[in-house]
Amino acid sequence: MSVTAHAGPTKIMDNNLAPDRHVWNALFFSAFPIAVVLLYGVLNRGTGMDQLMGLTVLDLLILGLATFRLIRLVTLDKIFSFFRAAFMNTLPDGSEIRPDKGFRRAAAELIECLWCTGVWAALMATGLYVSLPIGRFFVVVLAISALGSFMQVVSKRVGAAAPHTHQPGVCS
């Protein structure tokens, strides 16, 4: 006997956006393939395409970790709040909200979306990794930082699950 789970009603995307939001979203959407083509052109002029085609599993792991770290930097980390604030409206209480319309609204939505930021971060990390020696170093540093973040999360979870008993004479 087979059991099929039903997730409930399907959520339909809201297409009742203001016309200017459609325009800005279309521009951002169009900018990505243009950036891909430009990066391809840059890589194709030098040795970048050879490096891109020769990526190993380790390279892909490094790029994946670096992309994860870039996504987090742009969308969540305090150090990048100045960048996010440029696209947000600040309320009197200090909280931030997206503008109602225009370029800043579209950019704020892009920055707040982990998936959207992810494709741009992957393009940036890959381009840097295969085209510039310093870019390769930057991506490796981001990947190491991502591993450090994972270790922090794991150690906090392990510490939270461990019994907290103190024994005299034992360092903890």
Descriptive labels:
172 residues; mainly alpha; two-stranded antiparallel ribbon; flat; disordered N terminus
Structure description:
- The structure is a single chain.
- The protein has a domain at 20-79 and 114-158.
- Helix 3 (57-75) packs across helix 7 (133-161).
- The chain has 172 residues and is mainly alpha-helical.
- The protein is flat and about 65 Å long.
- It has helices spanning 19-45, 48-53, 57-75, 81-85, 102-112, 114-131, 133-161; strands spanning 89-90, 96-97.
- How would the global form be characterised? flat
> What structural class results from the helix and strand content?
mainly alpha
For the largest sheet, list the strands in their spatial order.
Answer: 1-2
How would you spell out the order of helices and strands?
A: HHHHEEHHH
- Total helix count? 7
Low-pLDDT sequence parts: 1-6
Average pLDDT, all residues: 83
Strand count, sense and barrel status of the largest sheet are:
2 strands, antiparallel
Proportion of β residues?
Answer: under 5%
Question: What fraction, in percent, of the residue positions are helical?
Answer: 55-70%
Concise overview:
The chain has 172 residues and is mainly alpha-helical. It has 7 helices and 2 strands; from the N terminus they run ααααββααα.
Task: List the topology elements.
Blueprint: H1 19-45, H2 48-53, H3 57-75, H4 81-85, E1 89-90, E2 96-97, H5 102-112, H6 114-131, H7 133-161
Antiparallel strand pairs: 1-2
Helix pairs in contact: 1-5, 1-6, 3-6, 3-7, 6-7
